[in-house]
Write a structure and sequence with these properties.
The protein has helices spanning about 1-5, 20-30, 65-70, 170-180, 185-195, 205-215, 245-260, 305-310, 350-360, 380, 410-415, 455-460, 465-480, 485-500, 530-540, and strands at about 10-15, 35-40, 45-55, 55-65, 75-85, 100-105, 115-120, 125-130, 135-145, 155-160, 170, 225-230, 230-240, 260, 265-270, 290, 295, 300, 335-345, 365-370, 395-400, 420-425, 430, 445, 515. By secondary structure, it is of the alpha/beta class. It folds into four domains: about 1-55, no CATH class; about 55-165, Immunoglobulins (Immunoglobulin-like), CATH 2.60.40; about 185-310 and about 485-520, no CATH class; about 325-480, 3-Layer(aba) Sandwich (Rossmann fold). The strands form eight sheets. A five-stranded parallel beta sheet has the order 20-19-21-22-24. A hairpin with a 2-residue loop joins strand 12 (about 225-230) and strand 13 (about 230-240). The chain is flat. One of its GO terms (molecular function) is glucosyltransferase activity. Its main location: endoplasmic reticulum. Pfam families: Glyco_transf_90. This is CAP10 domain-containing protein.
């Protein structure tokens, strides 16, 4: 196997007899890298085509919040493992899910209950999720090859490491300093709040306008008024369909376990559409917080309930989020179907148009409707309904089309996380991070009327290297801006900056109309490092 030993990344076309092939397989299994090859029968000999030895893994670099800030409490701590070859270059191809073993154990041999998961990111790196079931002191982390060779030094996760259910809130500025929040997107919060100068908003006026505009629309709008007092959460809902407040309740409970929020009030829109539209106001506009914004509204945008829910559920092994991306990147680019793909319900007229385009260009686009709800009378034209398929199967195709639903399509985060190119419709609607992305850098834009969709698909087919670069850029953007730490940072920053536009002291209200969102402390076996958790337990 001399040619592999000289250059482990060599690709060759050669002829070998069956004995040599057996030796090659044994050689590959012995090394800390994989060989991929294809065998075709050529008569008396077997031709081994494109023998490829993946780069030899020399070491692993560990980085991320769990390594750099181990005491930062999140639903799941996480870090990244980047493999490096013998030349000191980052490996950029998957080495396989079993190429490394991540070992985590208590320093000094003390017992501690936790588990961790390792996910192949299919780019030469791995995402590691660490979930604590009790407070642990000083954990050690190291990475080994599948043959047992150490690839990294021992990293000490120093300190008392609390699980996420500990009620140990810090001063919010101390938490922000510890978390080292990336502030790349924080200017978007200032843009959202620009209509309201600091200290200009009387919240009594806000509630009066909310009740006048939407309070009687029992089915037309769904809102919740949150009051934070002494880091306790109280709420009053407006409308019939307010079940989604469960998601915001969970988010606020998780936040107030980590930080002490200022006493404040705000109104959250639980519906799809932004509420406070741009217009010539005879009265001052109302600062409403929403999960979705638009170019023609003034709503202040929080991370969507979908993004926040996935963040809160990172402690679950089966959760599909930005850490467990392996199911979105498992199909190599060269094995994907070379056409665009879309599935969804009929929640926007352009989605019907997408079906027509697919019928006219079946060689370039596979688009179909899974449910008819808004345009049921058009089923005979745009139907029949097709069966839903698992989201991970979307990525059998090289190109993913993202078209708005009722508002912004909340699937975009996970589409960007996959290893297919995203073709995103131009839209007035956006989630909190959209305005931080760049066209043709993180995704390929298509016109709102989809008139250039086929042109863009053809461009992508003709420019695979550029397409792969856009996919890589999207992955980097998500890792820097939409991971769990960054989602908590953005949520907290919105609440802090929103509070600054309010006039203080806040007006008093009849608290009998409010219910408390109860914060349950961790159980005694958790052994939280702070006294606050035990204090709250005794108060219950």
């Amino acid at each position: 196997m001399d040619f592999l030993e000289k250059d482990s990344s060599l690709s060759k076309r050669t002829k070998l007899n069956p004995l040599h092939i057996t030796e090659l397989v044994k050689f590959c299994m012995k090394q800390d890298f994989r060989c991929s090859f294809e065998i075709i029968n050529t008569g008396s000999l077997l031709a081994l085509v494109n023998v490829v030895g993946a780069s030899v893994v020399d070491r692993a670099i560990l980085y991320g919040p769990a390594i750099e800030i181990p005491t930062l409490v999140l639903p799941a701590r996480y870090f990244f493992v980047q493999l490096v070859d013998e030349r000191g270059k980052n490996i950029t191809q998957s080495q396989g899910a079993d190429a490394i073993e991540v070992r985590i154990w208590p320093d000094g041999g003390a017992s501690c209950s936790f588990h961790h998961f390792v996910y192949d990111a299919f780019d030469g790196s791995y995402n590691v999720r660490l979930v604590l079931h009790e407070t642990c002191a000083n954990l050690l982390v190291s990475v080994f090859s599948k043959s047992g060779k150490p690839l990294s030094k021992k990293h000490l996760l120093k300190g008392m490491l609390d699980p996420d259910d500990c009620v140990c809130p810090m001063a919010v500025e101390d938490w922000k300093a510890m978390a080292r929040c990336a502030e790349d997107l924080f200017h978007l919060i200032d843009e959202d709040l620009a209509p309201w100068p600091s200290g200009s908003v009387n919240f009594k006026y806000v509630i009066g306008e909310v009740e006048k505009k939407w309070g009687r629309q029992t089915k037309g709008a769904s809102l919740v008024h949150y009051r934070i007092r002494g880091n306790r959460i109280f709420k009053k809902t407006y409308g019939t369909y307010v079940g989604f407040s469960e998601f915001s309740d969970r988010a606020l409970l998780s936040i107030t376990r980590k930080v002490r929020l200022p006493d404040t009030d705000f109104v959250l829109n639980l519906g799809d559409w932004p509420l406070e539209l741009h217009r010539r106001h005879s009265r001052p506009p109302v600062p409403i917080i929403s999960w979705c914004g638009s170019a023609d509204s003034l709503d202040i945008v929080l991370p969507s309930y979908e993004v926040m829910l996935n963040t809160l559920k990172t402690n679950l092994s089966y959760n599909h989020d930005l850490l467990s991306v392996n199911h979105l990147r498992h199909i190599p680019w060269k094995e994907k179907v070379s056409k665009a793909f879309w599935r969804g319900r009929d929640s926007r007229e352009e989605r019907l148009l997408l079906v027509n385009i697919s019928r006219s260009h079946p060689d370039l686009l596979d688009a179909a409707l899974t449910h008819f709800f808004f345009f049921h009378d058009q089923m005979t034209v745009y139907g029949p309904e097709v069966s839903t398929i698992p989201f991970q199967d979307f990525f059998k195709y090289k190109y993913q089309v993202n078209v708005d639903g009722t508002v912004a399509a909340y699937r975009l985060t996970m589409l960007l996380a996959g290893n297919s190119l995203v073709l995103k419709q131009d839209s007035k609607y956006y989630e909190h991070y959209y305005r931080g992305m760049q066209k043709d850098v993180h995704y390929v834009p298509i016109k709102e009327d989809l008139s250039n969709l086929i042109e863009k698909i053809k461009w992508a087919k003709d420019n695979p290297k550029k397409a792969l670069k856009v996919i890589s850029n999207a992955h980097k953007f998500l890792r820097h801006n939409v991971m769990p730490r960054e989602v908590f940072c953005y949520n907290i920053e919105v609440l802090l900056r929103y509070d600054k536009i309010l006039k203080h002291p806040l007006h008093s209200v009849n608290m009998s109309d409010f219910q408390e969102v109860i914060q349950y402390p961790a159980d005694e076996q958790t052994r939280c490092s702070c006294a606050q958790n035990m204090k709250q337990r005794h108060e219950l």
